[in-house]
Amino acid sequence: MALYRYEDKSPVIGRDCFVADSAQIIGDVVIGDGCYLGHGAVVRADYGSVRIGEGSAIEECAVLHVPPDIVMTLGDRVTVGHGAVCHGLSIGHDVVLGMGSVVSWNCTLGPWCILAEGGVLPTNQEIPEGKLLVGVPARIRGDVTEENRTFWTWGKQLYRDLARDL
Known about the structure:
Layout: E1 2-4, E2 12-13, E3 18-19, E4 24-31, E5 36-37, E6 42-52, E7 57-58, E8 63-65, E9 71-74, E10 79-80, E11 85-86, E12 90-91, E13 96-97, E14 102-103, E15 108-109, E16 114-115, E17 120-121, E18 126-127, E19 131-134, E20 139-143, H1 146-165
């Protein structure tokens, strides 16, 4: 893994995390316990700060980047899918950002929101808890179902187990 200090800020990684050799973590980043950061993942907090909650997965080639003087927070058990890009402000507990999705600047997603694969959430959106978002631009298509929650609870546990075991 590549950990980069920026000015007086260095990344802090929690216990039982897996951070791939090719992941890059830059600046004021704090990663909670039991997280997974896949190959090619980039967490860039050179001008602002990023806080990643426990049990979260930042999958391969995902990018988290924060504008100057902003703190981006990801709650516990957040899944950022392969190739997703996130500039969001606040990502609630148990959120899923699907593969190849984009969350633009200053967006807030409440707990248990799912942004489907390839969805693009434009700047300055505030999404309430438990919504399913689809499309370009992403629109609310309904509520997250119990079936969605069951599937994603299982998937999130896979990554926590993987982080612990690698």
